[in-house]
Design a protein that fits this description.
The complex is a heterodimer of chains A (about 110) and B (about 250). By secondary structure, chain A is an all-alpha fold. Chain A is built from four helices and no strands. Chain A has a single domain, classed as Helix Hairpins (Orthogonal Bundle). Chain A is elongated and about 65 Å long. In chain A, about 25% of the residues are buried. Chain B has a domain of about 150 residues. In chain B, helix 2 packs across helix 3, helix 4 packs antiparallel against helix 8 and helix 8 runs antiparallel to helix 9. The chains are: A mainly alpha (about 110), B mainly alpha (about 250). At the A-B interface, helix 1, helix 2 and helix 3 of A face helix 1, helix 2, helix 3, helix 4 and helix 6 of B.
Amino acid sequence: MSYLPYAVAAWLFLIGLYGVISSRNLVHLIICVGVIQSSSYVLLLAVGYRTGAAAPVFVDIPVGTRAVDPVVQALMLTDVVVEVTVVALLLALAIQVHKRHGTLNPDELRKLKG
Amino acid sequence: MTRRIRQRFFLISAAALALCFVWGYADLPPFGHVSSSYANIVNAISVPQRHITDAVTAVNFDVRGFDTLGEEFILFTSVLGVILLMRRTKDEPAGDHEDKAPGRKVPPVSDAVRVTTLLLMAPTILFGWYIVVHGQVTPGGGFQGGVILSSAPLLLYLCGSYPKFRGAAAPRLIEIAEALGAAGYILIGGACVALGGLFLENLLPLGTTGTLTSGGMVPFINLGVGLEVSGGFTLILLVYLEELMEEKE
């Protein structure tokens, strides 16, 4: 059981990648990119977790209490906000693709290129 | 490359990648037993040396403040990209800013929704700023508070019509707020250099631990990030809603 969170992160990455490769719709593809990104959240939090440790907020616990890794949590926090805007950017690209070519299917897009 | 060949190709490379995962994880200590000396140091110094009780904020805006500057600008450029991509080109007609669905009437917003969203408006804004300014004391800060703040104008959209939302969101003002927030981070860092310190070195008095003014520069950086994130998210909402209005014509 002690390696389960790492396995979940790997699984999320691979299943997201499969979604990207087999996708027939750009919106679906963008959500799959989001799934790949969420594997990084699981991995970061899993690496920072320590059994029985407190949250790294020293308001009502004395300094020196065993706490989990604050560095990976800080990474994840900005990651979440940045991911949302990157997804918004990708969706804007998808809207432009639909306006120009009338389709969201990546396979049909390649045919258009000739 | 047909779909079948592509999927077979993926299966082979996915198996290889899975092996890489196993190889990479093999040397990792089991879940819950990873120990990083960097984490121990940050946890030990954030209160005595920085007067910041939330170690995550200490990492984000003080110890690794320079990295957060980079992450903030990923956000800034993404928002810029969304606005550029979604701008109206000359051959596209301008929307008339009214909710319309083809072939059916849009039911009016019920009074219950109107009253509830209007009542929620002020608490949402207050809560957003509360989270922004308490970043150095408890979990929170500019990123989280900014997202909460940007949901306030969305409540207006829910309770009324799009023109009201657009009026309240005041795109020009929001753009200025977002730019100020982004520039503020660099200006604060530059001010440190001008005062003879290093870029983003915490030069201000550290204040009393556990109060709003503790942490030296951190509250100011948090305010800037809060402005940037709330401005950026509101702009994205505006741009997408504008697009929705055009689609429905």
